[in-house]
């Protein structure tokens, strides 16, 4: 028997809920995705509703999929409100002389462009040197970062300044880049996406040039899942605690 919502009709996709108990695996997957899509469009309403449906469910499969849908909605809303901008490159510090006038400037050497990221979509390439971000420019010579490190302990370097500025943006923001490529300065526009949860926990060895892309991607997926799980458990514990208050 398919489950039915017992909490009234407020635009909730009851058909998607029903499909969670279908004998067809594809129906269950599609139902979960439909709930996530609905929830991401109405996060405040969905968080309360999906939690109620989860707590009322008796079928283990339905309960599990409702929990996963709720987790995705909660994590997405957290990222929307508190998420940072993301580019998707590995980088190193590099001082450059600008073509024409020879002006010395600090730059961000792109050592790798990760697939399906704002950097790739904007046309950034390995060996490009980012010499400007919006109105920001960086002086040369504060110190050279190890490839892929580029932030910790290097305040004032181009890589630190670039990373801090990007993380200060929100997902969806547009930024303008000045890029030195093949002796020419090019201008690129980039639409930032959200910085993956858990990214700061990626081992430094995987940020070095030459690290296998598949290994990097797999580690990032694992860390992102762990970060989402941990955030969701904190959120859920907070909701449970609030519900017990008089």
Explain the overall architecture.
This protein has helices at 14-19, 25-41, 43-56, 60-82, 118-122, 158-167, 213-244, and strands at 85-86, 89-97, 104-113, 129-133, 174-181, 184-191, 193-194. By secondary structure, it is α+β, with helices and mostly antiparallel strands. It folds into two domains: 1-82, no CATH class; 85-195, PDZ domain (Pdz3 Domain, Roll). Residues 81-135 form the PDZ domain.
- By CATH, the superfamily of the largest domain comes out as PDZ domain
CATH top level label of the largest domain: Mainly Beta
pLDDT < 50 runs, ≥5 residues: 143-155
- The percentage of residues in β strands lies in 15-25%
Percent in helix: 40-55%
Strand order of the main beta sheet, please? 2-3-4-5-6
Task: Choose one word for the global shape.
Answer: elongated
Backbone structural class: alpha+beta
Radius of gyration: 23 Å
Number of strands: 7
Oligomer: single chain
CATH architecture of the largest domain: Roll
Number of domains: 2
Query: Number of helix segments?
Result: 7
**CATH topology grouping of the largest domain:** Pdz3 Domain
InterPro entries: PDZ, PDZ_sf
Protein name: PDZ domain-containing protein
């Amino acid at each position: 028997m398919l489950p039915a919502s017992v909490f009234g009709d407020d635009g909730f996709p009851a058909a998607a809920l029903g499909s969670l108990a279908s004998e067809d695996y594809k129906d269950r997957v599609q139902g979960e995705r439909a709930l996530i899509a609905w929830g991401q469009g109405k996060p405040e309403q969905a968080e309360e509703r999906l939690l109620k449906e989860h707590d009322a469910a008796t079928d283990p499969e339905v309960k599990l999929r409702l929990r996963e849908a709720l987790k995705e909605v909660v994590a997405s809303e957290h990222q929307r409100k508190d998420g940072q901008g993301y580019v998707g490159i590995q980088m190193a510090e590099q001082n450059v002389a600008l073509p024409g006038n020879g002006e010395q400037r600090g730059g961000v050497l792109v050592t790798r462009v990760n697939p399906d990221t704002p950097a790739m979509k904007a046309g950034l390439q390995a060996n490009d040197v980012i010499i400007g971000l919006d109105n920001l420019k960086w002086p040369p010579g504060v110190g050279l970062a190890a490839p892929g490190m580029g932030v910790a302990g290097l305040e004032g370097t181009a890589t630190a300044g670039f990373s801090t500025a990007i993380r200060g943006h929100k997902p969806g923001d547009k930024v303008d880049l000045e890029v030195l490529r093949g002796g020419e300065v090019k201008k690129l526009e980039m639409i930032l996406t959200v910085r993956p949860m858990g990214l700061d926990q990626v081992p430094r060895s995987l940020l070095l040039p030459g690290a296998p892309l598949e290994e990097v991607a797999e580690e990032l997926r694992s860390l992102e899942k762990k970060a989402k799980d941990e955030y969701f458990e904190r959120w859920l514990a907070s909701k449970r605690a609030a519900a017990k208050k008089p």
